[in-house]
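ok so I'm stuck.
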Amino acid sequence: MAAFLALLAACTPFQRGAPGGTASNPGTAALVVAESRIGAPYRYGGSGPDAFDCSGLVAYAYRQAGITLPRTAAQQYSAVTPVRKHELRPGDLVFFRVNGRSVGHVGIYAGEERFVDAPQTGGTVRMASLDDSWYRQRYVGAGRPYQ
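replied:
not stuck anymore, here's the structure
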């Protein structure tokens, strides 16, 4: 029985960390929190824990990881240390322009061109791709809210 349990434990999926900042860095901890909210409904102005807009999800996830961020996507963009796209790490923030205006959308990078996204009214928190044409055309930049 002990051998069976050891084998079963070896098959357990890798966990990046746990909410509350116990991961190796706050970005990873925030990503774990954001991923745990996949499926939560989008709500304009929503900042959790049960419904979110994009910047509300980011602020909520980072707050759980011990970092306070401004509330809007534009404010968050101004508050982060810029990161080049090829230097993105899980937990970094990715920013987009909406309707050709200033920064109006944000997500949490998960790796492999994917990010956690709270998309729009009627949608739910989900995993999205930077390769999607909508996001690719509107990508502004990325940043890291911790050192």
